[in-house]
């Protein structure tokens, strides 16, 4: 972010003063910036995320290639990283997410939004709440609530069976589970 001029931008409130020195040192990450925004929010931040988003993976590969870093990232590793990042965000009460099985990159700009549930985008929604139903809970009204949504077996971070030793990953497809560090979750907490 430093090399793009983000740390010294003239745009008011773009970078909180508490993160300026980390940014100027070239060590600020997007995750730190988002986590800071979550801490200062009085309303929920809602993320819609495919578990194995192909466009995000392609972007990661291209950045890796141009940065001379190993760009290899499997779909299972991608979702493990998403789960790790989101479990960090989830420490804040204002973070909510709708996790969707599959590769779709964007939902709200196409008709697939109307056929999406947490199991995917291809069929008529069968697992409540559908994505449109979930989106209709925002903004959260006084006295109302909203939940994070995920379909799949509840497991630990990176698909580790709950109660198993670290790194003991089950044989099932490792991009369809739900991390117990992300769901269940309701706002307000």
Describe this structure as you would to a colleague:
The chain has 189 residues and is α/β, with parallel strands linked by helices. The chain has two domains: 1-40, no CATH class; 42-187, no CATH class. The protein has helices spanning 20-24, 30-39, 54-66, 75-89, 131-135, and strands spanning 45-50, 95-100, 146-147, 154-155, 178-179, 186-187. The strands form three sheets. The chain has a two-stranded parallel sheet with strand order 1-2.
How many discrete structural domains?
Answer: 2
Largest sheet: 2 strands, parallel
Beta-strand segment tally: 6
In which order are the strands of the major sheet placed?
Answer: 1-2
What is the helix/strand order? HHEHHEHEEEE
What coarse outline follows from CA principal-axis ratios? globular
Rounded to an integer in angstroms, the radius of gyration calculated over CA atoms is 18 Å
Number of helices: 5
Instruction: Assign the structural class, choosing from mainly alpha, mainly beta, alpha/beta, alpha+beta, or little secondary structure.
Output: alpha/beta
Calculate the terminal CA-CA distance, rounded to whole Å. Answer: 33 Å
> Would you identify the regions where 5 or more consecutive residues have pLDDT less than 50?
none
Can you give the mean pLDDT? 87
Helical proportion?
25-40%
Give the percentage of residues in beta strands: 5-15%
